[in-house]
Amino acid sequence: MNEVRKQEFSIVIRPMRPFDIASITLIETRIFSDPWPMVAFEEELQRDNGGFLVAESDGTVTGYIGYIISAGEAQIINVGVAPEFQRKSIAKRLISHIFEIAKKADCEYIFLDVRPSNSAAIGLYRQFGFSELYRRPGYYRFPNEDAIVMVKNLGEE
Ligand SMILES: CC(C)(COP(=O)(O)OP(=O)(O)OC[C@H]1O[C@@H](n2cnc3c(N)ncnc32)[C@H](O)[C@@H]1OP(=O)(O)O)[C@@H](O)C(=O)NCCC(=O)NCCS
After folding, report:
1. What is the DSSP string of 69-114?
2. pLDDT (tens digit, 9 = 90+) per residue, 70-109?
3. Distances in Å between the alpha carbon of 123 and those of 8, 94, 120, 129, 156?
């Protein structure tokens, strides 16, 4: 699966459904040191001011992204891609969808948190024009680490 190339599979982005949650939780435990439990994704299905999108390829969930829209601002609350599908622009596709959702909701800003050690994610966010706003000291656990709060001003688009 590591050798799957971009042109060998198609990706559909769609809202998360209840039957996706087992697959998402499995990916989550593989890619995060402090993964969300299954119940957290189940609770997100009830959210009326946001939700999760999944990337699906040939019936397989390969990635996901969670967002909240509140008070004219959007927040990305989680994003992950299965290890064997990374570096195939799936996260870029997911974030582009969030940009469209945020614009339709007339949001001026999109916020997110990221570990300073997560250079892959920081590189991804910088490609979309996110910049560092401030740090939350000791925000993350397992391991303990600050959070960088990043923001994108959609008015700059
Ligand atoms: C971060 C993550 C979501 C990126 O997903 P992805 O689908 O592999 O990313 P893409 O293929 O869309 O890459 C987009 C850009 O991100 C950056 N990037 C992604 N993976 C990278 C890596 N391993 N090293 C360096 N830069 C990387 C690059 O700038 C890349 O652009 P390029 O391909 O033009 O160089 C994925 O690595 C992941 O799931 N990591 C574990 C979970 C995580 O850290 N989530 C973010 C929490 S804030």
Report:
1. EETTEEEEEEEEE-GGGTTSSHHHHHHHHHHHHHHHTT-SEEEEEE
2. 999 999 999 999 999 999 999 999 999 999 999 999 999 9
3. 25, 15, 5, 10, 19
* 27 Cβ closer than 6 Å to some ligand 1 atom: no
**Residue 82, exposed/middle/buried by CB under 10 A (0-12, 13-18, 19+)?**
buried
Can you give the pLDDT at residue 9?
A: 74
Nearest atom, ligand 1, residue 82 CA: 39
Structural domain boundaries in the chain:
6-110
Contact 9, 56 (CB under 8 A): no
- Secondary structure element (H or E) that encloses residue 151, with its range: strand 145-153
Q: Is the CB of 90 within 6 Å of ligand 1?
A: yes
6-110, CATH topology level = Aminopeptidase (3.40.630)
pLDDT tens across 112-152, in order?
999 999 999 999 999 999 999 999 999 999 999 999 999 99
| pTM of the model as a whole | 0.95
Q: What is the DSSP letter of 134?
A: E
Amino acid at position 146, single letter:
D
